[in-house]
Amino acid sequence: MKYKSTRGGVSGLSFQDALYTGYAADGGILVPESIPVLNMETLKSWASLSYIDLAKKIVPLFVDEVEIPASDLNGLLDKAFAKFTHQEIAPIQRLKNGLNIMELFHGTTWAFKDLALSCVGQFLEYFLSKQKKHLTIVVGTSGDTGSAAIEAVKGFEYVDIIVLLPKGRCSKVQEQQMITAVEKNVHVYRVEGTSDDLDIPIKEVFKDVTFTKKHNLSSINSINWSRIMVQIVHYIYAYLQICPRCDGEVEIIIPTGACGNVTSGFIAKLMGVPIKFVCAVTQNDIVARAITKGDYSMSDSVIRTLAPAMDIQIPYNMERLWYLITQDSKLICKLMTEFESNGKVDIPTFLKNQIEEIIVATYVADNEDIKTTMRRTWEENHYQICPHTAIGVAYYYSTLKPDHKRTTVVIATASVKKFEEAVVAAGLTPQKYEEVEVLFSKPVKYTDMNKGENWELILRDKIEDIDK
Ligand SMILES: *Cc1c(COP(=O)(O)O)cnc(C)c1O
């Protein structure tokens, strides 16, 4: 499999190239040159596979054997999932009222980002150690990405990671997960500002292409193809768990932010898996407006909600969806150029209609809706959900019909353990988790970046220092 840019200026990249690439040189993002299609017989024959065994079937469709031979790849995938605490990796809870919840939070940092980043970490160390090359990852995070990325690479020989987090604005557990990484290749900064503020020095550093190349910098956000690729697995797994005979369609409700997760599902659909999607979002509703009205326009500011991982202004992966549907890089260039200069663009009706055939509904929840749903799931099942998951479940409840049997699954993107603040806000009693207590007894290591300091300079100095 080779990779190309959505904007037509780059093609023929290997998986390894794609792994190191954020934005392509032409400003676009990478997609596979073709989408492998699975026939029903193949799909059926996978129905009894474990999650990891399924990953071992799907990842090779996108990574050539000459790049990573099967035996190596299988070893990397085993290692990536070794620290997951549930043997099924992504178990489905079957609750009252036909509510199925797929728990994607059994990785080390208790959010779905562990699924992909644990693999990405293994891929990086694999290629880098062969080439004896060093890479520095720079991540700005509002919570889950930073901790999952740290976990994925801590202790590695050929990778250092620098994380900037907005001090006091993540949940307590999220911040604690990041500042308790004491390994010498992990460098965490608590920035006195919002996640938008901390993006500024990072952007400035990445704009300096000479510097970026010289120090081999990378950012592993969901622009990165390898993350999207690994996430395809959990959609196919979800389908096979809910519909093992492969004789029907499954509706998957996805709490959505930057659309990385839904893009993976979208690709599973294009591969021939009979699934359709609902995107559930916070009041930062650009995704919902784009899908249902063709109105892709940035709002003036980000509203802070109880589901911070979904509070985004630009869902970067939309560009991938448009390209995957149209395969028309001229159109993508035109749309994105307009969006980049005006902060808004109208999506052509034919494109909007085709997306709506796959993403069949959207749902926008406010904080009241989140809290009510967290309470209802608890009252009906004695099962607590995180505020992000609650937005998906809120859609499910809002469309519940008493006798109507649906084959639906809601993606649980994070564990409630990470969001005690939201549990309290919902009027519920937080449960005690031993692993959370352990986390708060660990030693910490971090540096503060305070207002008035030159953050860009601090970041550059650190990067140079690592490379010495
Ligand atoms: C990152 C994240 C999301 C949003 O996922 P996208 O792929 O950006 O759409 C939703 N919920 C949680 C808990 C997350 O960490």
TrEMBL record:
CDD domains: Thr-synth_2. One of its GO terms (biological process) is 2-oxobutyrate biosynthetic process. Residues 2-81 form the Threonine synthase N-terminal domain. Pfam families: PALP, Thr_synth_N. InterPro entries: Thr_synth_N, Thr_synth_N_sf, Thr_synthase-like, Threonine_Synthase, TrpB-like_PALP, TrpB-like_PALP_sf. Keywords: Lyase, Pyridoxal phosphate. Residues 103-411 form the Tryptophan synthase beta chain-like PALP domain. It comes from the Eukaryota. One of its GO terms (molecular function) is pyridoxal phosphate binding. SUPFAM superfamilies: Tryptophan synthase beta subunit-like PLP-dependent enzymes. Its cofactor is pyridoxal 5'-phosphate. The modification N6-(pyridoxal phosphate)lysine is found at residue 113. Belongs to the threonine synthase family. This is Threonine synthase-like 2.
